TrEMBL record:
<dbReference type="InterPro" id="IPR052030">
    <property type="entry name" value="Peptidase_M20/M20A_hydrolases"/>
</dbReference>
<protein>
    <submittedName>
        <fullName>Peptidase M20</fullName>
    </submittedName>
</protein>
<feature type="domain" description="Peptidase M20 dimerisation">
    <location>
        <begin position="229"/>
        <end position="319"/>
    </location>
</feature>
<dbReference type="Pfam" id="PF07687">
    <property type="entry name" value="M20_dimer"/>
</dbReference>
<dbReference type="InterPro" id="IPR002933">
    <property type="entry name" value="Peptidase_M20"/>
</dbReference>
<dbReference type="InterPro" id="IPR011650">
    <property type="entry name" value="Peptidase_M20_dimer"/>
</dbReference>
<dbReference type="Pfam" id="PF01546">
    <property type="entry name" value="Peptidase_M20"/>
</dbReference>
<dbReference type="InterPro" id="IPR036264">
    <property type="entry name" value="Bact_exopeptidase_dim_dom"/>
</dbReference>
<dbReference type="InterPro" id="IPR017439">
    <property type="entry name" value="Amidohydrolase"/>
</dbReference>
Length: 432
């Protein structure tokens, strides 16, 4: 049943992936993406929830300003998004939650797929597969450089399986197409809406991260770090750099001081830590004492407590740098993640479920990672309420790493992931 289904739906998976790849959208601005997902799910017969029905709007973090939101909304309308749909999403309320109740006794399974892109200009060289095949991003400076176009296609493939085999399935299914994963901004808003409150088993995962052969999947991951994302503004006083330098208060120097000193935060004995200054802008001209500067910073730690240590040290350094140069500093918290501890008890279940798959060739018990994931809010909520949760990896070659302008993956991994999820769903039925 599943092998035939996966083979037959593969052309559609590729079509969805390539279409979405050409129209990437940043977090909380995935209007076109949400619309395309929602229309497909609606056609299949799912009960769909969009906008404030899908997420707790007040729990969103790092929402773009109104000007950017309006610009993307108008662009999405030009791409064919219906006005009735846009009204549900306006103001950055993107993402879809789809539910299906078989009305037969069984467990409640939740699956999450992230849908946002990154602010990266995609490579246009002929050795870059999307460029060579004609589906490179049409949005300059925005790119699916982390595989979320594939994740969305995977989710739609799973949805098609549920709809097609509804008469043989049991229990309930909640499919979450989450906005704004990048920067740890969207999952908490979905979680706070209550979608994870009564999930028995929760599954999510990622294409790549580790370069495994296509056909290899990891049933669990170890090493995701808790993280906090900060936007920092320094405000000084502008002055003529030649005639009155003593009257100026240099915001650029405050940011530069902070940038160098943040990397001097002592490591923690309790586990790994990270600090990164990803963006810094300042000043307006060579003969003007810089009045303003801006930084985008993130901290990470193996646990929430260790991340809190790095964050406190970062805040201390930021305040000290401002005081050194006699400028003001303000900080905006725009994202966060928690650590993830997958349920090892799902390893034998996933392994056994995928044994009969002709697509999945190997199931690793776990994969070691070191990034951060806001799906942590979802996994931790499920586990807190007595359910089981895991974060999987789906193998592919990675000539270039995630978040690189030439990032790409072997498209066959999309079919592998769909088939793995299908066997997990079927295994859950037999388990019942």
């Amino acid at each position: 049943m599943s092998d035939n289904f996966t083979r037959e739906i593969t052309p559609l998976l590729m079509e969805w992936r390539r279409t979405l790849h050409q129209k990437p959208e940043l977090g909380f601005m995935e209007y076109y993406t949400t619309y395309r997902i929602g229309k497909e799910l609606e056609k299949l017969g799912f009960t769909i929830h969009v906008g404030v029905d899908a997420l707790e709007s007040a729990s969103r973090m790092g929402v773009p300003d109104d000007l950017l939101l309006t610009e993307q909304e108008n662009k999405a309308l030009g791409w064919g998004v219906e006005e009735t749909w846009m009204e549900k999403m306006r103001g950055g309320n993107t993402g879809v939650v789809a539910t299906w109740d078989t009305e037969k006794k069984g467990e409640h399974l939740g699956l999450r797929f992230d849908i946002d892109a990154l602010p990266i200009k995609e490579s246009d060289t002929n050795d870059h597969f999307p460029s060579k095949q004609g589906f490179r991003s049409q949005e300059e400076g925005v790119m699916h450089a982390c595989g979320h176009d594939g994740h969305t296609a995977i989710g739609l493939g799973v949805a098609h399986f549920i709809a097609q085999y509804k008469d043989t399935l049991t229990g309930r299914y909640t499919l979450i197409f989450q906005p704004a994963e990048e920067g740890g901004r969207g999952a908490k808003a979905i979680t706070d809406k209550g979608w994870l409150n009564d999930i028995d088993q929760f599954y999510t995962g990622h294409i790549g991260i580790n370069p495994y052969p296509v056909g290899t999947i990891a049933a669990t991951t170890r090493g995701f770090l808790a993280s906090t994302k900060l936007n920092v503004h320094f405000k000084g006083v502008a002055s003529h750099a030649g005639m009155k330098p003593e009257e100026g208060k240099n915001a650029l120097l405050a940011a530069a001081t902070a940038a160098t000193q943040l990397y001097a935060i002592p490591r923690h004995s309790g586990g790994p830590t990270r600090i990164n200054v990803g963006k810094m802008t300042a000043g307006s001209g060579r003969n003007i004492i810089p009045e303003t500067s801006y930084m985008e910073i993130e901290t990470r730690g193996e646990t929430k407590e260790i991340n809190r240590y790095v964050l406190q040290e970062a805040k201390r350094i930021l305040h000290a740098s401002a005081a050194m140069h006699d400028v003001e500093v303000t900080m905006e918290f725009v994202g966060e993640t928690e650590e993830i501890e997958c349920d090892d008890s799902l390893v034998p279940f996933i392994t056994q479920a995928c044994e009969i798959s002709t697509y999945v060739t190997e199931v690793l018990p776990y994969a070691k990672v070191s990034g951060s994931e806001d799906a942590s809010f979802m996994t931790n909520k499920v586990q807190k309420n007595g359910g089981r949760a895991t974060y999987m990896l789906f193998g592919t070659e990675l000539p270039y790493g995630h978040h690189h302008p030439s990032f790409d993956y072997q498209e066959a991994v999309i079919s592998i992931a769909v088939d793995a999820y299908i066997h997990i769903l079927k295994g859950g039925m037999s388990h019942e």
